[in-house]
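Follow-up to my post from last week.
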Amino acid sequence: MCGIAGLIHKKAGSANIGQELTDMLQALKHRGPDSTGYALYGAPISNYIMRINLAEQADTKDGFEVQSQLQSRNDTVDARLAERGAKIVKAEKSTDYALRYEVAFDGDLKGLIDYVEDVEGVEVMSCGNGLELIKDLGDAAVVSGQYGINSFKGSHAIGHTRMATESDVDIRSAHPYWAYPFADVSVVHNGQLTNYWTNRRAMEREGNRFNSNCDSELIAVYIANRISKGDTLEEAMKRSVEDLDGVFTYLVATSDSLGMAKDVMAAKPMVIYEDDDFIALASEEVSIRNIFDHEIDTFDPYEGEVRVWQL
Amino acid sequence: MATVSKSSQSHDMGLHTEKLTNRTQQMFFDAGESANLTYAWAPEVDTNKVGTLDCEGMDPTAINIRIRELMAEGCGTINLSNPGSMHGLCVGILSRLQLNITGSLGYFGCGLIDGPNVHISGRVGWSCGENMMAGTIMIEKNAGSTFGAAIRGGDLVCRGSVGSRTGIDQKGGTIIVGGQTGAFTGFMMQRGRMIILGDAGMNLGDSMYDGTIYVGGKIEGLGVDAVPADLNDLDRKWLKSKLDLYGMEAPNGIDNMQKIVAGKQLWNYDNLEPSEKKLVL
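User reply:
Got it. Predicted complex:
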C-alpha cells in the first residue's frame, strides 16, 4: 500500500520540517510499517552533503567481525574520496552503518559517486547541497529517533512509509530514491509500475544505474534521465505520466521545488492542503491533519494531474 | 410523454430503483414523489433527545460503539465533533438518526448505512457512503474518490468536488456533486441517478448497465457504451425538485444539463439476463 507525504514552506525560510514530516508519516504508519524514509531540504551550503550507507541494517546484526568490516569499508570510502580530490569537511555517524559527510568537491560528481559505490556494500543514499536523504527500517518515530530528524530545519521535504510488496524489506528498497547523479533530486512513490523492466533496460543501456529491484527507483532515474536531456522538472513529470504504465502517485523534490504527479487512472490517493505560504500533500488527510490544530480544507488532485510548487 | 406508460418512461430514462427485500424488483420513478429516503417500516426515533460525542483521543472502533450506545439510550440526534479524518467512522447505522458531524471523515465514512440523515461540515476521504442503502448524507466540502461506491439507495450529496470513479457500481439512490468529478464516474453503474453540476472527467459512465447521469458542466469524454440522451420534462422536473431539496443550482440552468444513459450494446441488464441464463442452463 505505502504512504507518501510532502510539504513545502514557500516563504518561511527555515521551518521545523523534520518534526512536521515525522508527524505526517507517523499518521500514515498503517499504510506501511516496514520502513520509513525522508528527503529533507535544509538551507543550501557550498559543499556537498553526502549520506552514505556502509551496509544494510540486517547485515550488521549477524555475521562475523561486523564492526571491523564496517570500519574497513568506512576507511576505503574515505580513501577513495581523498583520492578523487574530495575533502571531508565534516563527518558524522548516525548509526554504525550510516554516514553523513560534508564534502568540498568541484570535480565530476558522477565519477566520484560511482567510485565510492564501487566499495562492496556501500551505497550513496544522496548527494546535494541541501538534500539529506535518510531511510531505515521501522516507523517514523523509530527512524526519526535514530537519526535525530525532529530537530531538522529547512524549507521542504518528502517522505514515505513502506509496505514492501514487490521487493525486500531493506534500506535499499526503501524510499525516497535519490535521482542519481543529479544533486538534490529525490522521489517517493505509492503504486506499481507495470513497464518497469522495459524502461529499466532502456535506461541502463543509456548508462543509468539502479541500486535496487524496486519499481519506484525507476521514477527517480526516469526524472533524472529527462532532466539530463533538457526537460524542466514539470516537463519531465508530465512526460512520465504518459511513459510510465501502471498505477502511481509520486512526489519529487529538488533544491527549490516540490512536485506531484498522478497516473491517468487516478488509482492511488493523494490529498492536498494549500495556502499562500504552505503546501502539504499526503496519501490520506489524516496525515496532513496531524500537523494542524485547526480545521483545514483539502482537495484531491485528478487523473493525470501534475503540480509543481517552487520556493 | 403522455402517450407512454409510467413503466416505459422509467425504463427509457433509467429512472428506477430497486426494492431491497425479497427478490429484485423495480420501483418506478414518480417525479412528484416526496423525498423517500428511509424505509417506511424504520422505527421512529426521538430527534429531540440529543447525544454528544467528542472523538478527541478515541479510536474508530470506540467511536462507532459509542454511537450505538447513544442510539440505544434513545438519542435520535447525535452531535459528533473532532472526527479528525479517521477512517471507518459512522458505519453500519441501520435506523433513523440525525447525525451532525463537525469536522472531516477519512476513508469509508458512513458506509453501509440504512436510514440516518448525516450532515458533515468538512470533507470526506475515499469511499464515503459505500453500499449506503437509505437515508441522506450531506457533505459541505470536498470528497475523495469512489464516492458512493455501490450505493443502493438514499441521497448522497457533496457540495464541493469529488475524486475519480464516483458512483462506481451504483445500484440505486442518488448522488449529487456540486463541483466537478474525476475519471470513470459512473463506471459500471447499474441503477440510480447521478447529478454532477460541474465538469466530469474522462470515461464518464464507462460500461454502465443502466441508470442516468446528468452533467451541468463539460464532459471530458464518454466511456464505452455511455451515450447522450435527450433531456425531457420528467428529467427537468425531477432535477429541479432534487436540487431544490438541497438548495443547489445548476450553474448553466437545468435546461442546459447533459443527460447520459447506457447504450445497452454491451449488456441489457433488465431483459437479457434471464434469457441468457436459460441459454446457459
